[in-house]
Structure formats: C-alpha cells, structure tokens
Amino acid sequence: MPAEPLRTLYILGAGASKDDNAPLQGDLAGECKNRFIAQDLRYDGWFSRDDHQEIITFLHEHWPDDRYPPMEDIFASILIPDLLRGKKSSNLRIYNKLIYLLGHIIDSLTSGSIESSTTYRFLQSIDINNNREFIDFLSMNWDIFLDHALETLNLRVNYGLSDELLIDTHPLANHQHHVNVCKIHGSFNWMKCMKCKKTFLIHKQKGIFESARNQLTHDHGDEGIDYRFIPDIIPPSYLERFKTSVFTSLMNNAIEMIMRSNNIVIIGYSFPDADVHMRYALLQGLKGRKTSVTIVDPAPRIDRISPFIPAREIHVVAKTFKEYIVDLEIPIDIY
Ligand SMILES: [Zn+2]
C-alpha cells in the first residue's frame, strides 16, 4: 500500500488521438494533400479552396517527391529561416493558412459521436468523474478529443491559464467540477485575435470554426485583416514562442504537474527530436524524485525515453491506446 495517495498524470501524445482517427504528425502534410484531391473539406470565408491550393503549391515546391517530414518540421521550415535572419517572418501568411487547414481537417474528423471515441471510453474506464482530484492530463495534442470528452462528462477543462491569457465566457467557466489539462503545444479551441492578441476559449459544438464564428463577437471594426482569429497552437520546435507569457505559463504548469504526480502514464508519445518543450519539462519535473512511469506504446522507443526519465523503473505496456483501455475496463455490474 502506498504511503501517499496515488496521484496520476496522464501524458498524451499523438498516438492517443490516432485511435480516434487523428493523423500523426508525420502524416499531416500528406493528409493536407489528400483532402485537396478528395475535395471533401467544407470551405468558407475563413479558409477557401484557393487557400488550400496555396498550401499544396508550397508543399510541392519544398517536397516535390511528396515525402513530407512531420508537421512540426514543416512549421519550422516555414518560420525558422526568417527568424535566424532576425526579421519578422514573411511566411506568416502560409503559416497561418496551414494552421487553418489543420483546424479544418481536425474539425472534419471530430464530427462523429464523442461517446464512441476511444478518448471518451478511456475517461470512463478511469472513472474520471470520481477521481478527478487525483488525475491530471498533460497533452501534446492540438486536437480537442480530450477536451470535448471531458465536457461531455460535465467536467470543466481547466487549462491552467489565467483569465488574462485565456478568456472563457462559457457558463461552465466557473463550474467547480474541473479537471486540470495542460496543453503544452496549444489547442485548436484557443482562438487568438490577430489584432489584440487576446486568446478566447471556444467550446466544442459542431466544429471549431463554426463554434468560433458563433461564439466570438470580438470586434475591431474594419481593419482589413484576413483572419480575425486563429487557433493558438504552438509547434514544438517553434523556439520564438518561448518568449510569450502563454508559453511560460504552460511550461510552468507542465513542470508542476510532473512534480506533484507519483504515477506517470505516457500514452502514445514518441519523444520526437523536435519536441524540446516536453524534454525540458520532464527533466525539470522529475529532477531528484522517484516516480512510477508507465509507457503505453505499441512500439516503445526506450532508447529515446530513458535519457529523460533517468535511473528509475519504467513499466512498458506495448499496446495501442485502444488495447490499453481494454485492460483498464472492468465490468461495472458484477451481480
Ligand atoms: Zn482583439
């Protein structure tokens, strides 16, 4: 029996969203192209087929053989050349359009029933409603499967950002039954005003952009801005963002979550080289502490993981998220 109550931190990587049909980082660019060919995205004033065409042209110019790197590397190759030259990126336009496109793709994938998603089943299998005080989530993902599933279970998602950094006007905003979720790379439902840089939280209804349009009435008049709001996502290799207050808060929260947990379960996260944020958080948060760490991954890369989780026992569960949940699920009614 443990001397202190079990306090679990679930760290969710792209593998945790894969079972809900979200593409992995390495497949996102290919997905951008596939969806252009399939013509099955619903275009609108925020993102048109011409915008989509512009991205496809950009991808083709840089990777003519269609062998695309992970999306985080694509973001880096858009922004870093200019940043290195010490000027504001002239490629911000394509960068912003790419974020819109990814948002659309995620929107189209999350249109199904959340109750049948792997993420929702996972939350039920850990009985989140009764254990919410002893469980934290640290997500690497931009998608909002987890956020949507928690809201569906009547739990408020506490992103750990002050009202100054993330403005939430939803009636559930002060709901006392909340769950702490740190999204270290930002989130598709954090919509940043391109004019004043304030970020507003939108709540999942039909789709991210549809919700944004319905929920955000922030108005700066006719400023001639292409996109008034843009999802506030933070590519893992985007070093520029280290300077912003949102990012500083997220990093501090992530480290704090790691420090207060005595049981860490890492699901579907492959510790990619580009992700300097998470490596830093783990090194800081685990410094000089003994914590049980479980890795859930069908093809775990212990060589990549062990430098960041030194000298302690790592339990490996070589399973997908979906398979792992089957282990967690116990019959509710045994009579
Ligand atoms: Zn504004």
List keywords for this structure.
335 residues, alpha/beta, Rossmann fold, 2 domains, seven-stranded parallel sheet, three-stranded antiparallel sheet, 13 helices, 15% strand, binds zinc ion
First CA to last CA: what distance?
A: 28 Å
CATH class of the largest domain: Alpha Beta
Overall mean pLDDT score? 84
Supply the number of helical segments: 13
Annotated CATH topology of the largest domain: Rossmann fold
What would the principal axes of the Cα set say about the shape?
globular
Question: How many distinct domains?
Answer: 2
Small molecules (ligands, ions, cofactors) in the structure:
zinc ion
Indicate the CATH architecture of the largest domain: 3-Layer(aba) Sandwich
Adjacency order of strands in the biggest sheet: 3-4-2-1-8-9-10
Radius of gyration, in Å, reads: 20 Å
Structural class: alpha/beta
Strand content: 5-15%
Overall strand count = 10
Assembly type of the shown chains?
single chain
Low-pLDDT segments, ≥5 res:
none
How are the SSEs ordered, and which strands pair?
Blueprint: E1 8-12, H1 14-18, H2 28-38, H3 49-62, H4 71-84, H5 92-109, H6 118-125, H7 128-131, E2 135-139, H8 145-152, E3 156-158, E4 178-183, E5 186-193, E6 199-201, H9 208-215, E7 229-233, H10 245-260, E8 263-267, H11 276-285, E9 292-296, H12 302-305, E10 314-317, H13 321-328
Parallel strand pairs: 1-2, 1-8, 2-4, 3-4, 8-9, 9-10
Antiparallel strand pairs: 5-6, 5-7
Helix pairs in contact: 2-3, 3-5, 6-13, 10-11
Bound molecules: zinc ion.
